[in-house]
């Protein structure tokens, strides 16, 4: 299977079955251009720049890589793309995981829909096309509560332990976790606090944090007295630097996504879990366990930042508590 890199998907796909993207020589900001089309800049490139305009740098890199691969396969402008071209592109993805293929097809369809909606493309040929998948295996990626507690208590390093506990408590995506700065934290009366993150779709989301976990997060500032970093935790007057990252690497910079993956994998090994646990599993665990304990589904939806309650409803289907089987005469 082609393995060029990975990007976190909303369903928590692991690197082995993740979205395959070509990254490395792409800038972290600004629209991605240069798709090998005839006129620089071509009408398609202008459309793509507009499509990517408000997406995060990470999303731009992933979407741009997919479109470069699509253009390399079709070798024609978007206005001339047919249903057969989508089928050919789908076939060209043979060897990738089903989830990766579905995501790449969805990216292409998103652009075609956007172009049609704003009047640049006369037809949306992607509307009728659907990539074949084997379905979701979400139920295989939900830890039980005892397994989760073993995972959360498996590491002694204060930063790593707090990272795991906050990930479970807030259901933040890994990209949201590593982006937390001290300015995003706000104490609340009676103990505990709240953290606001910029999440998927450039939407802000605020999560409440109970006092036990909140105190652990606040304690990280006292443990990190580094002044060598370009963004030290404390300013010259001794006050907390609002722009400093809450979770730092040993080099003083913000903890990276791949580092969080390694922390979670190490915690899983220490906890005796044989599954290849990813950071997103803690998000799955939060949703499933909260629903099991009677949390309203709309509250869980808002906590996870889902645009549709249908997405949150997957957790009810993955771990049902009731079934018509109990009414049968067996």
Protein model, in words:
- The structure is a single chain.
- The chain has 330 residues and is mostly helical.
- The chain has 2 domains: 15-117; 139-318, Orthogonal Bundle (hpI Integrase, Chain A).
- Helices cover 43% and strands 5% of the residues.
- The protein contains 12 helices and 3 strands; from the N terminus they run αααααααβββααααα.
- The chain has a 3-stranded antiparallel sheet.
- The longest helix is centred in the N-terminal third of the chain and has 20 residues, at 98-117.
- The N and C termini lie far apart (45 Å).
Give me the CATH fold name of the largest domain. Answer: hpI Integrase, Chain A
Give the rounded overall mean pLDDT.
82
End-to-end CA span:
45 Å
Tally of individual domains: 2
User: CATH architecture of the largest domain, please?
Assistant: Orthogonal Bundle
Order of helices and strands: HHHHHHHEEEHHHHH
Radius of gyration: 22 Å
Low-confidence stretches: 1-41
Structural class: mainly alpha
Determine the number of helices (DSSP H or I, runs of at least 4 residues). Answer: 12
| Highest-level CATH class of the largest domain | Mainly Alpha
Shape: globular
Strand content: under 5%
Largest pleated sheet:
3 strands, antiparallel
The spatial strand order of the largest sheet comes to 1-2-3
Tally of DSSP β-strands: 3
CATH homologous superfamily (4th level) name of the largest domain: Intergrase catalytic core
Estimated helix fraction: 40-55%
């Amino acid at each position: 299977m082609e393995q060029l890199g990975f990007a976190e998907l909303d369903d928590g796909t692991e690197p082995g079955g993740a979205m395959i993207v070509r990254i490395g020589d792409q800038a972290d900001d600004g629209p991605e251009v240069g798709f090998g089309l005839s006129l620089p800049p071509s009408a398609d490139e202008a459309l793509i720049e507009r499509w990517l305009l408000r997406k995060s740098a990470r999303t731009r890199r992933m979407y741009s890589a997919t479109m470069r691969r699509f253009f390399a396969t079709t070798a024609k402008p978007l206005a001339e793309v047919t249903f057969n071209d989508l089928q050919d592109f789908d076939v060209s993805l043979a060897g990738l995981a089903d989830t990766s293929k579905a995501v790449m097809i969805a990216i292409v369809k998103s652009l075609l829909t956007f172009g049609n909606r704003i009047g640049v493309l006369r037809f949306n040929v992607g509307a009728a096309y659907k990539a074949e998948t084997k379905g979701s295996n979400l139920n295989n990626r939900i830890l039980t509560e005892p397994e989760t507690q073993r995972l959360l208590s498996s590491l002694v390093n204060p930063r790593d332990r707090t990272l795991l506990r906050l990930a479970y408590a807030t259901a933040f995506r890994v990209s949201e976790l590593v982006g937390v700065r001290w300015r995003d934290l706000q104490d609340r009366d009676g103990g505990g606090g709240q953290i606001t993150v910029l999440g998927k779709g450039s939407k802000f989301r605020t999560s409440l944090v109970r006092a036990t976990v909140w105190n652990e997060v606040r304690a990280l500032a006292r443990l990190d007295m580094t002044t060598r970093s370009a963004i030290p935790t404390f300013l010259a007057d001794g006050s907390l630097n609002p722009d400093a990252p809450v979770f730092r690497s040993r080099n003083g910079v913000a903890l990276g996504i791949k580092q969080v993956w390694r922390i979670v994998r190490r915690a899983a090994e220490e906890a005796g879990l044989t599954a290849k646990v990813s950071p997103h599993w803690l998000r799955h665990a939060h949703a499933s366990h909260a629903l099991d304990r009677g949390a309203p589904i709309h509250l869980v939806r808002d906590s996870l930042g889902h645009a549709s309650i249908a997405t949150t409803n997957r957790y009810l289907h993955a771990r049902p508590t009731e079934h018509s089987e109990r009414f049968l005469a067996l």
